[in-house]
Specification:
Blueprint lengths: L4 H12 L4 E3 L6 E5 L3 H11 L8 E3 L3 H7 L6 H8 L4 E6 L6 H4 L4 E5 L4 H10 L3 E2 L14 H8 L19 E4 L6 E4 L5 H8 L4 E2 L26 E5 L14 E7 L10 E7 L4 H15 L6 E6 L6 H12 L3
Parallel strand pairs: 3-5, 4-7, 8-9, 10-13, 11-12, 11-13
Antiparallel strand pairs: 1-2, 2-6, 3-6, 4-5, 7-8
Helix pairs in contact: 1-6
The structure holds threonylcarbamoyladenylate (TXA) and magnesium ion.
Length: 326
């Protein structure tokens, strides 16, 4: 992927003018705007059709920028050294500089230093802190390549910076440092065990749904989220696909790895997210495959769930929300 200086400059100029643009990150594509500009932040909510109770993550280039936005924390240094730039978002008490619109009125702000070279360039050239939720319509599958953004938001935004497919493919881990015990609010590519090993203290996990109508302090935690339009049924790995699929119209069976044998059945098509079942590859493919299958007119998608180990914890979290119906 050969992105020119002009393309980076174009994105940075739009952002400086108060516009919003889609940018690649290593996790998923983000819909970015100047975090300190209310007009830009409003546009983000509008374009995504996102409820104002769902706060945004602010992306920074370096730790100096963090000090303007959040109060430092005794655990920050260790975490930043181990995981930044990267797929970790930290919840910290906010400074008065951060607009309430960004944080949904909460006294805390979510901060992430992304590692994608193009995102970092845009941060550097623009000199801004960038609020950026995933660049998808609210509730739909997150975008893991530029075409996904074009397909669903292309008409509504002035620019999508193409950085190729995202290397990770699912959203960052969110760690809340605003309470006594560090707590994972959204599982992600960096696991609670990895965080705990670096911090030398236990890390709690609190992946539950936000009560209806309240600010989503527990993020992405609406029961239904990341959902394809086609109904999705989840199956535990190793369990056979249920007999009922034989009676359905047109079914897609999504396997973790290439299956040895497949039922040769006219109404069923088989797909796999990785040749070998490697969960890093599964994460890279998951949203792409679901988006593609969502356009193919299947009556239902059946998907084999990974085990709750490593990034499997985050994959299960996303899939359970994707399969839920409000
Ligand atoms: O990997 C990622 O984190 C991607 C890329 C673009 O950086 N961003 C992303 O943003 O996933 P979004 O908006 O789709 O999800 C961010 C979540 C929201 O569900 C929100 O509830 C939570 O972060 N959040 C933001 N500020 C918060 C706060 N102050 N306290 C608790 N949760 C917060
Ligand atoms: Mg999102």
């Amino acid at each position: 992927m050969n992105t020119s200086t002009q393309e980076i400059q174009h994105a940075a100029t739009l952002l400086q003018q108060g516009d919003i643009v889609a940018l690649p990150t290593e996790t998923v594509y983000g819909l970015a705007g100047n975090a300190l500009d209310l007009v830009a932040v409003n546009k983000i909510f509008e374009v995504k059709n996102r409820p104002l109770i769902d706060p945004l993550i602010v992306h920074i280039a370096d730790l100096e920028q963090l000090n303007e936005l959040a109060t430092p924390h005794p655990m920050l240094e260790k975490l930043a050294e181990a995981f930044w730039p990267g797929a970790l978002t930290l919840i910290l008490p906010k400074t008065t500089k951060v607009p309430d619109l960004v944080t949904a009125g909460q006294p805390t702000v979510a901060i992430r230093m992304p590692s994608h070279p193009l995102f970092r360039e845009v941060l550097k050239v623009s000199g801004l802190a960038l609020a950026a939720p995933s660049a998808n319509p609210f509730g739909y599958l997150s975008p893991s390549c530029a075409q996904h953004v074009q397909d669903s938001l292309g008409q509504k935004i002035p620019y999508v910076l193409d950085g190729g497919p995202c290397s990770i493919g699912i959203e960052s881990t969110i760690l809340d440092l605003s309470n006594k015990t560090p707590t994972v609010l959204r599982p992600g590519p960096i696991t609670a065990d990895e965080l705990s090993a670096v911090l030398g203290v236990p890390v709690a996990s609190k992946s539950k749904q936000a009560p209806e109508g309240e600010a989503c302090t527990a993020p992405g935690l609406l029961k239904q989220h990341y959902s394809p339009h086609t109904p999705l049924t989840l199956l535990e790995a190793g369990n056979p696909f249920p007999q009922e699929i034989l009676q359905q119209d047109r079914i897609a069976c999504i396997h973790l790895r290439r299956p040895h044998t497949c039922l040769p059945q006219d109404n069923i098509q088989h797909f796999w997210m990785s040749e070998s079942g490697d969960l890093t590859e599964v994460a890279q493919q998951l949203f792409s495959l679901l988006r593609m299958l969502d356009t193919q007119g299947y009556t239902r998608l059946y998907l084999e769930m990974p085990q709750a180990q490593g990034i499997g914890v985050a994959l299960r979290d996303r899939l359970q929300r994707a399969a839920a119906r409000a």
